[in-house]
C-alpha cells in the first residue's frame, strides 16, 4: 500500500511536531524543500512553547519572504514531468524507466514535493532566536537571496557557499559535514552530541 503524500508544507510540519518527541539538544537541517520544512518546524515548536533547536541549518533555498521563483511544474503531465525529474535527480536506469508502475510511483512522489514547494507561502511572524546557518551552491540561488535569511533570527547568522549547483552536496559532502560540525561546535559543549534531525 502506497502511503499518501503530503501536499502542503503546513500539514507536513504539523504532523512532524505532533509525532516527534524533540528532546534537547537537537539541531535541524534541511535541503531545498527540507529547508522550508525545517524552518517552519522551528517556528511551530516556538509557537507551541516547545523546545528550540541548538541550531537551524538550511541548504539550497532562498529566504522565505522573497518571491517564489520555483517554476510551476507539479501540474504537468507525466511525460513532461519525467524529463524535469531526471535532469534534477539523474536518469533512471533503462529497466526502471521502462517500468510504467515504478515510473508512476516515482513521479507521484516528486509531484507531491513540487506541489508543496510551489504552493508554500511564508506567513509573517517574529524572527526565531536560534543560531541560523545557511548553505548553498555557487551556481544555484544568488548570494543575496541566501543572505536574506538573516532577518529570520535574532541569534547568530553564518553562511557558507560551496562550488556547485542546487545539488552541490553530492560532491561537497565532506565540506558540508565539516561546516555542520563547526556550527554545532560553536554551541554549548553538549551540542557536540546533539541529535541532528534531517528534513529533506
Could you explain the architecture of this structure?
The protein is α/β, with parallel strands linked by helices. It folds into two domains: 9-68 and 120-198, Rossmann fold (3-Layer(aba) Sandwich); 78-117, no CATH class. Helices cover 40% and strands 13% of the residues. The protein has seven helices and five strands, in the order H-E-H-E-H-H-H-E-H-E-H-E. The protein has helices spanning 9-19, 33-47, 78-89, 94-97, 100-119, 143-147, 173-185; strands spanning 26-31, 56-59, 132-137, 157-162, 195-198. It has a five-stranded parallel sheet with strand order 4-3-2-1-5, sandwiched between helices. Strand 3 (132-137), helix 6 (143-147) and strand 4 form a beta-alpha-beta unit. Helix 1 packs across helix 2 and helix 3 packs across helix 5. The longest helix is centred in the middle third of the chain and has 20 residues, at 100-119. The radius of gyration is 17 Å and the shape is globular. The two termini are 23 Å apart. Mean pLDDT is 89; it is low at 189-200.
Assembly classification:
single chain
Could you give a short account of the major beta sheet?
5 strands, parallel
Strand content: 5-15%
User: Spans with pLDDT under 50 lasting ≥5 residues?
Assistant: 189-200
Tally of DSSP β-strands: 5
At the fourth level of CATH, the homologous superfamily of the largest domain is Alpha/Beta hydrolase fold, catalytic domain
Distance between the termini: 23 Å
Query: Portion of residues in helices?
Result: 40-55%
Read across the widest sheet, the strand sequence of neighbours is 4-3-2-1-5
Question: Rounded to an integer, what's the Rg over CA atoms?
Answer: 17 Å
What is the global morphology?
globular
Please write the CATH class name of the largest domain. Alpha Beta
Q: What is the name of the CATH topology of the largest domain?
A: Rossmann fold
Give the helix tally: 7
- Total discrete domains: 2
Can you name the CATH architecture of the largest domain?
A: 3-Layer(aba) Sandwich
Average pLDDT score: 89
H/E element sequence: HEHEHHHEHEHE
